[in-house]
């Protein structure tokens, strides 16, 4: 069987010819575009290379003295500004004038870059110390103990104790106990902590003396009760 031939007409030939005419123009345009881009790419690469060569290593200035750190960075070509750091617990053990943070951090930067140095003063360090050594105020007058603890930055709660025989000889308005109480495990508390102060009032003292008197009377009554036991529970003697 003979193969079927595709019809060929003048219109189809014309369209194909147009396509082949466009190809050289497109190739020429692409070539021109490439030639135009190459200088731009070279220029960008050259700029990046020059910029890289201009970069200066920014050292880490944290823990250094603020004046020394500023002088050193300015000698390297950086612009330095000092900023007082806000109080923070991690600054409690720092030294006055010490750099505690910097922005940006160490790295390769262009000369003239602004570098912020954060430093601390004695006031910032004091405000950063959030723990306070807890003193023992047992035995002090209540008012004196309250004033002392409040001056340290602690808050006090005065709690009157109930009358107990063991408090019969204590003085009123005197701290009998405190909570928390300083010991080997507890030596400091956070600033602003509450400290409970237990003290004896006049009413509590009277109650304590009454309870002591009552306890003594019971103690005196005990021998009498023992003597009465045989009468209450008579035992027959064995023959």
Automatic annotation (TrEMBL):
<dbReference type="InterPro" id="IPR005543">
    <property type="entry name" value="PASTA_dom"/>
</dbReference>
<feature type="domain" description="PASTA">
    <location>
        <begin position="52"/>
        <end position="121"/>
    </location>
</feature>
<feature type="domain" description="PASTA">
    <location>
        <begin position="129"/>
        <end position="201"/>
    </location>
</feature>
<protein>
    <submittedName>
        <fullName>PASTA domain-containing protein</fullName>
    </submittedName>
</protein>
<dbReference type="GO" id="GO:0005886">
    <property type="term" value="C:plasma membrane"/>
</dbReference>
<dbReference type="Pfam" id="PF03793">
    <property type="entry name" value="PASTA"/>
</dbReference>
